[in-house]
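Q: What structure does this chain adopt?
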Amino acid sequence: KFWAMMAPKILRRQRNEPDVSSIITFPKPVISTELIKMDEMHIKYYRHWMDNFAQWFREQLRMEKESGHKIDQMIVLAHLTQLQFASTIPQSPKTALKGDPYVGLTTKQMRVKELVMEAIGNGEKVIVFSERPEFQRLMQRILAEHKIKAHLFIGDQGIKVRNILLDDFRYNNGTGVLLATTSCGEN
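A:
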């Protein structure tokens, strides 16, 4: 006889389900927008990579017109990712300019630090979301300099480690900050 075994169905609970919402409530998020101007050094880094992409793209368009060359979408995405790094974490080796490393924090990074420190000072817990693990690692180092314990919550940690860190963040008053990537912490 042949017995087919089926894997058990795993349900992922959502916070708005009646069985969950009757036990756990979440406060309504407060969303605000703040314009943060880039400092001159950051603009210099970003402009370098923007000009680099523009020059590459113009050459691709020229080749397409002359010889029918097709622009590789993956390379376009790689350039856009590099622009995102230059915008978010110019300290990254991926966007460091030869002989001219980015020193200090960008105005955005300083504002994130200020907001976190203000919330911690008020006894609040904070979750900082970013698409880039490199940004979260940088923020963890910055906060550690101010004696603020922050957990990384990023994809390369594995689910077991992330669950341990999440429980520590929830229940340990010594850990006030969770630095989550959007792919791991969006739910």
